[in-house]
Amino acid sequence: MNGNTLVRAGRSCLLAVAALAVVAGAALCAGGGPSFLEEIKAHEEKIDKGGPVAVSPVTRPVVEAREPYQGGTFAVLARKGEIGRYPCSSCHGKGRVLVNNGLQLTHGDVVVNHGREGNSLSCIDCHHPEDRDALEDKKGNRIDFDHSYQLCGQCHFRQKRDWLGGAHGKRVEYWAGDRVVYNCTTCHNPHSPRFAQRFPATYAVPLP
Amino acid sequence: MSATDQGQPGQHPLDDQTSRRAFLKGVAAGSAAFMALGCVPGAASAAGGELRLRWQEFFKKNYRLMTEEERRETVARLERLAAVDEGLQVSIGCEPPLPRVLFGYAFNITRCEGFMECVTACIKENNLDRRSHTQYIRIFEMEPGHLDPSAGDGRFFHEVPVENKFYMGTQCFHCENAPCTKACPTRATWKEPDGIVVVDYDWCIGCRYCQAACPYFGRRFNWAKPEVPQQEVTAQQHYLGNRLRPKGKMEKCTFCIQRTRKGRLPACVEACPTGARVFGNLLDPDSEIRYVLTHKKVFRLKEELGTEPKFWYFID
Questions:
Q1: Domain boundary residue among B67, B89, B111?
Q2: Eight-state DSSP code of residue B160
Q3: With 70 as the cut, is the pLDDT of residue A195 above it?
Q4: Measured between CB atoms, does A173 come within 8 Å of chain B?
Q5: Which of residues 15-34 of A touch B (CB under 8 A)?
Q6: How large is the average pLDDT for residues A125-147?
Q7: In the 8-state DSSP scheme, what is residue B224?
Q8: Domain end: B89, B122, B155, which one?
Q9: Nearest one of B105, B110, B109 to B288, comparing CA atoms
């Protein structure tokens, strides 16, 4: 190694040190402390659900979910009361149905648009084949209509994970108080879960 | 000024905190009598009460300097003036910020489908001017690959959702380091301790510096007195929120302060048919908003400005 290379190496060392100093200085100038997001996440202390503000209970019928949420429990909107012809056993499993009631009772209004094209779901993919008052998942578990998330979640597990955490779906009315969330079927029609195309509720005009 | 207004016996008149108000009351009553004689025909006593209200309203303090009692007095006056001027029975609140609460908002750009029901709910809840189509929320139809709303179409009106487009909503982001509040020459806008950036409409002079300072186009100006059909006025109001604004005032999204300080969700969140909007307490580790911030890929608009918006976008 001759002197020239030594000088060159020394110079590049100096440059590197200078560059480091500049970077460190910039970091200091930018505050260098925790970011806003880090400051928020530093708040780990639990807040009592009755905590900052008391809210009145949700008036719509709810059931306690059979899944934990952040170590506690939460409630979902009940479904059975929303199904016009529930309980299904009032027709199914009680003798024969008269022909003149047939049109009304054949579920001709139900259009199944669930599942990939050419691989659509059939009724008993979700409905219990014997007990019409219930649903059945692929493992043969009987599932209550109020707890349909247990059924939907077997395929839509990512959505269910997000829903349990709060990144999918929404809470009912209050951000405070006990957690009450929309059920899968509150928003999605289970037979045709994708939202239909429609016109927006309003339109925007240019800003003044 | 009557003798009973002079304060406690033995107290120096200058120490009497009520003397200024009492003086104004006197002036109001005097001018009412003058106007009754001069130009206002009849109803002198009724006009006197109303004039006194207006005088007291005109000389009130900035909301931040008011004591709790003064706040209650001003909202009571505003309720009476709403009845006198508009024939409306409204209930105006002055709820203070909640302890250990910092509001935050998240918007799921995978889920929003551009139905704009949030916008109509916001217009209704916040008594926005119907004539100029004032809207706090804007929804942009975006081409894939873009994340800047200025590259999107904010004026779409066709069936939604359109294949291979996504939708992105903007509103006031309630920056933690809000540039608009620094631009205000009268300190009529500020960030409340619960993180909501608010406007005191009665201290706003309508200079629109804040509108120019906002990098997100989050503020709206009332060029005329907002027109709201009487039967559509939302009666549950807040002093810093959706009360009917006078002409020439700046206004903006307040995270529906009249609702959220009572624990309710903002109107846009409640109206969203797809669940794209998440609202909650950033200081609560169990809240939905914290779940989103911890488990999802989040970003904010123009983060490099250092404004620290409390409004995150996320994808599923």
A1: B89
A2: B
A3: yes
A4: yes
A5: none
A6: 93
A7: S
A8: B89
A9: B105
- Is residue B94 assigned to a domain? no
Q: Are residues B21 and B133 in the same domain?
A: no
Phi, psi at B90, each rounded to 5°: -115, 160
Q: Distance between CA atoms of B263 and B250, rounded to whole angstroms?
A: 26
* A203 neighbourhood in chain B, CB within 8 Å: 116, 155-157
Q: Is residue B144 domain-shared with residue B258, that is, in the same domain?
A: yes
Chain centroid to CA B53 = 22
B170 neighbors B301 (Cβ within 8 angstroms) = yes
Q: Is residue B275 part of a domain?
A: yes
Cβ contact A199–B158 (<8 Å): yes
Whether residues B191 and B284 fall in one domain: yes
Which residue does chain A place closest to B114, by CA atoms? Answer: A200
Same domain, residue pair B152 and B240 = yes
Q: Does B128 touch chain A (CB under 8 A)?
A: no
**Domain residue limits at B111:** 103-315
Q: What is the pLDDT of residues B26-62, one digit of tens each?
A: 555 555 555 544 444 444 456 678 899 999 999 999 9
Overall domain count for chain B: 2
Residues of A in contact with B108 (CB under 8 A): 167-168
In a domain, residue B74? The reply is: yes
The pLDDT of residue B212 = 96
* Closest CA in chain A for residue B277: A170
**Any residues with CB less than 8 A from the CB of A132 and at least 6 apart, and which?**
A88, A89, A92, A93
Q: Determine the 3-state secondary structure of A123 from DSSP.
A: helix
Query: Which pLDDT does position B173 carry in this prediction?
Result: 97
In this predicted model, what pLDDT tens digit does every residue of B7-26 receive, in sequence order? 444 444 444 455 555 555 65
Chain A partners of B195 at a C-beta cutoff of 8 Å?
none
Taking CA–CA distances from A159, the nearest residue in chain B reads B316
Cβ of A207 within 8 Å of Cβ of B221? The answer is no
User: DSSP class of residue B142?
Assistant: E
**B33 and B111 share one domain:** no
Tell me the per-residue pLDDT of A44-63, one tens digit each, with 9 for 90 and over. 888 877 678 888 889 999 99
pLDDT (tens digit per residue) in B203-246: 999 999 999 999 999 999 999 999 999 999 999 999 999 999 99
What ipTM describes this predicted complex?
Answer: 0.81
- Asked, for residue B98, whether it belongs to a domain, the answer is no
If asked whether residues B80 and B190 sit together in one domain, one would say: no
How many residues does this entry show for chain A?
208
Residue B160 is nearest to which of A197, A205, A207, comparing CB atoms? A197
CA B50/CA B41 separation, integer angstroms: 15
Verify that B53 and B121 share a domain, yes or no.
Answer: no
| B contact test, residue of A43, A77, A162, A170 with most B CBs within 10 A | A170
Burial (CB count <10 Å: 0-12, 13-18, 19+), residue B2:
exposed
* Same domain as B143, residue B34: no
Confidence of residue A84 (pLDDT cuts 50, 70, 90): confident
pLDDT digits (tens, 9 = 90+) for B91-144: 999 999 999 999 999 999 999 999 999 999 999 999 999 999 999 999 999 999
Which of A36, A51, A170 has the CB atom closest to B308's CB atom? A36
CATH number of the domain that B166 lies in?
3.30.70.20
**Average model confidence (pLDDT) for chain B?**
88
